[in-house]
Structure formats: C-alpha cells, structure tokens
Amino acid sequence: MNSTTGFKNVSAVDVNKIMNDSDVQIIDVRESYEWAMGHIPTASLISLQTIPANLDQLDKDKKIVVVCASGGRSMSASNFLAGQGYEVYNMVGGMMGWSFATVR
Q: I need a labelling partner for 64 at 20 to 30 A (CA). Which of 21, 33, 76, 87 fits?
C-alpha cells in the first residue's frame, strides 16, 4: 500500500478478475447520467459528493474498489475512504480503461 495515499492503484484487468469475489465491493463515484451510459455489472453507484453521507452502504470487512470516468474522482474518493479506515483500491484510468462488459 502506498503510504502517502493509504490506498492501492489497480488496473481494469485486475478489477475484472476480482469483481465477483465476495470480499470485494465496487463503488462507482460518477454521476447518475454517466452511470446510465454503462457501468461495471457488480458496481454500486454512490456519486463522489454523496460518499460522506453514504458510508453506511460500505462494508469495512470488504475491499472497496472505487471507479469513475478517468480516475480523478475515484482517486479523491479513495483517499477519503482510506482515511476512514477502509481497505481501498483505486481503478486507474476509470471506465475509459474498462474494455469488459458493462450494463446500463
């Protein structure tokens, strides 16, 4: 884990491999209109600005993978969540780097 950020960066390939694991929770921090254009099948939508109010939707016993469009918002969310004590993984490149199946 990177000691300066408190979270790990992972690739879309890594996320695709673990997305169905029972100990992984994928959080998409984009806006609802972006989510509607396509998202990772096992992801939940919690837009970036609503994360502090929705911590009850996150499981501290699971690895939290955070995704956005290109990686910027997910990095901000990852930093915040790591500070709250979650085990966090930021998907580098966001949905722009996701070449696997999506749902709408």
A: 33
